[in-house]
């Protein structure tokens, strides 16, 4: 997902750059508050770990390999602020020193790789933790699911940026469908390797897993329940849920929205209005779609999901830590 | 480590580009890349001028074009996407070698290819002629917060160690007959990644302890920064003037 220079238009690059710079600034301030003078060496070496982990290939099928993106993993191991800061530094160094990703593309590359998977992934992790047992196994399962969905969030975010800044006549719906479908599969590898990595860290140094700080020793030792069955069930439910949302909008929405438009009488004005006033959307991204309302609705729903996830991630991260009483007692 | 101060991306040479202060080079790359990015794709002549200027800079730095081409591999996935666009794009079509392709798609493909190649080559030129500590020092001179450049410095310093550690783990697994082909065989790799994280974190804690023992106060001590003299900035500005002029002309013309 390291997009090169000129992949999206200048306006999108500047807008995403402003959002990313603001968020990384916040992450920097918060990481400093949490770590004080430990910040520089720890963040530096953690960034080296994330960088190295991205170079470490894992098998996918028949000998082909994929590699980790690591946003959600970094947020769960190090905490969302530190995770976002670390991945942001990795992405910037990759662009400037390794020519991997364009320098003018840093705005959207940072947003997609350093901001959304970390804060969004951390929010997802917290939500999955709530429905899974409060045990080591629950943390591992929640990590896997959060890492998987976080990759899809990034893919959706990229499609929405395409809607605003497309540079090629490929419609938003095509990009959205292709990106989400591909990352639905890529995300499985991301989820499995993130979960197993967190499991391995929990086994040796559970105190280093930020996302498991609320667990006491007895619960950390409880590694069984959520291992396989709960993970598979929760994974299936998530897959069905995501597939359900996407297909609803891809298949049903035209009729539903069309009917709504006819009933409320905005059908007649919709075409002119959208074609005249859509200046903030790139012409390309909406080209070749009969009903622009549909693609805007998909973008709207996906955008709301991303903003909700990242927003709650930021909220969860900024809120002072809440600890269980028994954790203190143990 | 043990390889001294050089890193794999740096090409040891003695040229005027190598000697240029890092902050000037960073600013120049930034101006160049932004000019390229805002140039309308129809202005083919503008991209030719950018390419020529970049070529002169690469020659002045005595870099082999083969080296630059090899390093450009990083942008391959997006090149593949760019080459696909004319076939999946909509709109008016034309015949290209007997295949129907979208005209607009061809333009889009050209746009991404040209800008990605120029942008990546510019940063390859930067890292091939500037050592990483100098790049970081240059960023600090350009007012990038010190905390960020210090963290990045630590990252780059320890990257090689951690990559080698992962490589040794992998070698140990291979020596014991681990040869994964399928996704469900990744458990040992992920366990190794977990172990590598714990080792990295503990290394970070040890390093912090060692730094405290040497009087670390939370801020990296600043070696007297070597600032680029004004005349160097002026000369760099003169060299970059045609680039900016071309970008402005292309914007006005289209």
The amount of helix of chain A comes to: over 70%
What is the share of helical residues of chain B? Answer: 55-70%
Q: How much of the sequence of chain A is in beta strands?
A: under 5%
**Order of strands side by side in the largest beta sheet of chain B?**
1-2
Q: How many angstroms does the end-to-end distance of chain B come to?
A: 51 Å
The largest β sheet of chain B comes out as: 2 strands, antiparallel
Structural class category of chain A: mainly alpha
Mean pLDDT of chain B: 83
Individual helix count of chain A: 12
Shape of chain A: globular
Give the tally of β-strands of chain B.
2
Most extensive interface, chain pair and sizes = A-B, 77 and 89 residues
Write down the secondary-structure element order of chain B: HHHHHEEHHHHH
Can you describe what's shown?
By secondary structure, chain A is an all-alpha fold. Chain A has a single domain (10-325), classed as Orthogonal Bundle (Arp2/3 complex 21 kDa subunit ARPC3), CATH 1.10.1760. Chain A contains 12 helices and 2 strands. Chain A has a two-stranded antiparallel sheet. Chain A is globular and about 60 Å long. The termini of chain A are far apart. Residues 251-261, 265-278 and 324-330 of chain A have low confidence and may be disordered. With 254 residues, chain B is mainly alpha-helical. Chain B folds into 2 domains: 16-139 and 227-253, no CATH class; 145-213, no CATH class. Chain B is built from 10 helices and 2 strands. In chain B, strands 1-2 form a two-stranded antiparallel sheet. In chain B, a hairpin with a 2-residue loop joins strand 1 (93-96) and strand 2. Chain B is flat. In chain B, 34% of the residues are buried. Residues 1-6 of chain B have low confidence and may be disordered. Chains A and B meet through helix 1, helix 2, helix 4 and helix 7 of A and helix 2, helix 5, helix 6, helix 8 and helix 9 of B.
């Amino acid at each position: 997902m390291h997009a090169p220079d000129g992949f999206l238009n200048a306006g999108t690059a500047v807008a995403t750059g402003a959002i990313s710079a603001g968020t990384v600034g916040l992450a920097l301030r918060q990481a400093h508050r949490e770590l004080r003078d430990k910040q520089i060496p720890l963040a530096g070496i953690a960034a080296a770990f994330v960088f190295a982990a991205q170079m470490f290939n894992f098998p996918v099928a028949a000998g082909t390999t994929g590699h980790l993106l690591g946003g959600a993993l970094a947020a769960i191991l190090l905490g969302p602020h530190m995770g976002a800061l670390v991945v942001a530094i990795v992405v910037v160094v990759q662009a400037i020193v390794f020519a991997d990703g364009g320098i003018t593309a840093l705005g959207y590359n940072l947003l997609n790789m350093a901001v959304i998977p970390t804060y969004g992934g951390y929010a997802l992790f917290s939500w999955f933790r709530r429905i899974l047992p409060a045990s080591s196994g629950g943390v591992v399962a929640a990590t896997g699911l959060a890492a998987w969905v976080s990759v899809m969030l990034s893919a959706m975010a990229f499609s929405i940026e395409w809607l605003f800044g497309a540079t090629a006549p490929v419609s938003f719906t095509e990009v959205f469908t292709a990106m989400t479908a591909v990352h639905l599969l890529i995300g499985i590898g991301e989820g499995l390797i993130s979960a197993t990595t967190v499991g391995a860290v929990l086994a040796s140094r559970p105190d280093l897993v930020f996302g498991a700080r609320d667990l006491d020793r007895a619960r950390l030792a409880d590694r069984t329940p959520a291992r396989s069955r709960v993970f598979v069930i929760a994974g299936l439910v998530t897959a069905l849920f995501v597939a359900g949302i996407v297909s609803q909008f891809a298949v049903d929405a035209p009729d539903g929205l069309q009917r709504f438009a006819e009933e409320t009488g905005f059908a007649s004005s919709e075409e002119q209005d959208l074609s005249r006033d859509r200046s903030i959307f790139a012409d390309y991204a909406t080209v070749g779609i009969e009903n622009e309302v549909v693609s805007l609705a998909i973008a709207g729903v996906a955008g709301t999901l991303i903003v909700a996830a990242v927003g709650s991630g930021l909220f969860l991260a900024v809120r002072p830590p809440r600890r269980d009483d028994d954790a203190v007692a143990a | 480590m043990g390889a001294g101060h050089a890193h794999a991306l740096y090409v040891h040479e003695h040229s005027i580009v190598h000697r240029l202060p890092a902050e000037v080079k960073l600013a120049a790359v930034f101006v160049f890349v932004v000019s390229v990015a805002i140039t309308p794709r129809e202005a083919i002549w503008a991209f030719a001028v950018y390419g020529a200027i970049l070529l002169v800079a690469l020659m002045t730095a005595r870099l082999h074009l083969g080296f630059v081409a090899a390093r450009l591999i990083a942008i391959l996935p997006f090149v593949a996407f760019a080459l696909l666009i004319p076939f999946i794009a909509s709109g008016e079509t034309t015949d290209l070698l007997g295949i129907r392709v979208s005209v607009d798609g061809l333009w889009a493909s050209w746009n991404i290819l040209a800008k990605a190649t120029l942008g990546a080559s510019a940063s390859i030129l930067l890292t091939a002629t500037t050592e990483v500590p100098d790049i970081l020092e240059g960023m600090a001179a350009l007012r990038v917060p010190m905390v960020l450049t210090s963290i990045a410095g630590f990252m780059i310093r320890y990257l090689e160690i951690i990559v080698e550690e992962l490589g040794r783990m992998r070698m140990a697994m291979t020596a014991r007959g681990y040869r994964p082909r399928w996704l469900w065989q990744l458990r040992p790799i992920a366990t190794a990644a977990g172990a590598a994280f714990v080792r990295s974190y503990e290394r970070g804690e040890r390093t912090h302890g060692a730094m405290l023992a040497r009087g670390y106060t939370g801020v990296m001590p600043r070696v007297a920064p070597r600032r680029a003299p004004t005349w160097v900035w002026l000369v760099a500005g003169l060299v970059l003037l045609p680039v900016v002029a071309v970008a402005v002309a292309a914007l006005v013309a289209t």
